[in-house]
Structures are given as C-alpha cells and as structure tokens.
Amino acid sequence: MRHAKAETGSASQSDFDRALAPRGRHDADRMGKALAKIDAIPDTVVSSTAVRAKETAEIASEAMKFRGALKTVSRLYNADGEAWLATLQELPASADSALLVAHSPGIEEAAGLLCGAPSRAFDVPTGAVLLFTAEIDRWSELEPGDAALQGFLRPKAVAAL
Q1: CA distances (Å), 16 to each of 53, 61, 111, in order?
Q2: Are 37 and 9 in contact (CB under 8 A)?
Q3: H helices within 10-78, ranges in order?
C-alpha cells in the first residue's frame, strides 16, 4: 500500500514529518474497509517510520479491524524495491499475509520485482493497494518473479465494494 495523500510540506518541515491531508485520512479509512470487505485483513502490518505512512497504516488497520501490532521499519522510508523485498523476506513464518505501507517509487519498483514486470511498470496513486499471492512456504524464500498480481485497489474505485 502506498501511503495516502499527504499535506503539502512547508519550508520548515521535513518530508519525513508530513502528515496526512484530510483526503488522505478519508482514503486510508476507505481502503481499510475495502480490504475487510474482500476478506484481505493481513496477519501483520508493517509501515515506514514516516508520519504519513504510519498514519495511513494506523487508520487503515483500525478501519479493517486489524488486531495485531503495527510494526515500523525505518528502511522503508524512501526505499527502493529491493528494500521492500528484503522487508517481506524478514517477515515471520507465522504470518500468512502482510500489508506493507510505504512510499513511491519503491512500491512501483517492488511490484515489478515481485511479479517479474519491467522496473517501474506500475503507476500507484496515493492510498492504492496492490494485492499479490506467492506459492512459498516461508517469506525468506520469496524471490523476484515469485508473485502474481491478484488485485489493484484505488481509493476512488473502491466505493462500489
């Protein structure tokens, strides 16, 4: 999941500290509810440590009634696709599914890596969720090209769910 729409930063504010805009808060809630409706509540939620990503993860988790603890990983801030993949590979074997919340362009790079598509083949708007499946026994076995794209949910399109 790409973080939802953030406020425009100011000269005195770091990019890392940008919070969600009102639309972003609404979209994060909408996406969490959509994931619950399609029975895609993850076993674990991992977020970038950036404010807007953590807020997105928290709001979406609450909306989908996720009961676990939110984990934050600093390397997901401004991460490339390889860092996303490494984060997935380190997930516990007890988690059958996961939601990672972070930033662009890393999400597009990770999506391409996961399903063997060309680098940057995806255009992922703020708040969107890409759903993948992979036939692996442990996350540590996940390699580039191992996953299949099962869904692409955008905030503006999930109202019909």
Answers
A1: 9, 21, 23
A2: no
A3: 22-37, 51-64
Domain ranges of the chain: 17-160
What does the alpha-carbon distance between residue 22 and residue 38 come to, in Å, rounded to a whole number?
A: 25
pLDDT tens digits for range 103-139: 999 999 999 999 999 877 899 999 999 999 999 999 9
Check residue 21 and report its DSSP letter.
P
DSSP 3-state of 107: helix
CATH number corresponding to 17-160: 3.40.50.1240
Alpha carbon distance 127, 107 (integer Å): 11
Strands 70-73 and 44-48: parallel
